[in-house]
Amino acid sequence: MKSKELFCISKSNCVFFGSFNKTTAIYGPNNVGKSCLIKCIQAMKDILLNKKVKLTSNLFSNNSICELGITFLYRDMKYSYDIKYDTKLNQFIYESLTSKDIILYKRDLLNQIFDCKDEETKKFMFYMVSDNVLFHVMNTEYMKNIKDVFVSFAHTMDIISTTQWNGSSGAEKLIFLLKHIEPQRILIVDNLDDGLDFRVVNLILEMSTSSQLIFVVMLVYL
């Protein structure tokens, strides 16, 4: 996951969640950007699912352009998707999707670059609106297939926050989720230790590391 000039993140930020790690913990003091990372992941998921764009440029700079990128595996294929969004213009000014170093499509409005592996799609890219990503506004068979990949991947991510939970009910909900999570899903939990007894947190981590499922747990110490 890559991000830059987004929410409280100013410099380029890259976080790797390997599928061989069944549990990943992110921890640190208050106001260092842990929850901002979760917001970035949620924002990317919303974009992939064609939900309302909720991107805010960095609070401490005058740059209105924020950047997001994600690299993921889907059906043994590796994809890398990068976007740039102008929060003043409310436009996606840059999109690029690659796989195996091959450009599947690229739209760069600033440099007027419109490239695509599929010639039929390439002919119409210039005329497409920029208030949404291309695979949600183009109806070519090529883009429909790309959309299917993105939507299917986005649906594998479950993002929750324990902020509104109390200790006992929160622990019960998390344990239930871990017991019933499906294979190949990604579970992202913000504020895992918020109001939870550390013995419960350790139990949750023990359950996750002994499981054969693949998921990510965000462990945030306040």
TrEMBL record:
One example GO MF annotation: ATP hydrolysis activity
InterPro entries, sorted: P-loop_NTPase
Gene3D superfamilies recorded: P-loop containing nucleotide triphosphate hydrolases
Descriptive protein name: AAA family ATPase
Organism: Holdemanella porci
Phylogenetic lineage: Bacteria, Bacillati, Bacillota, Erysipelotrichia, Erysipelotrichales
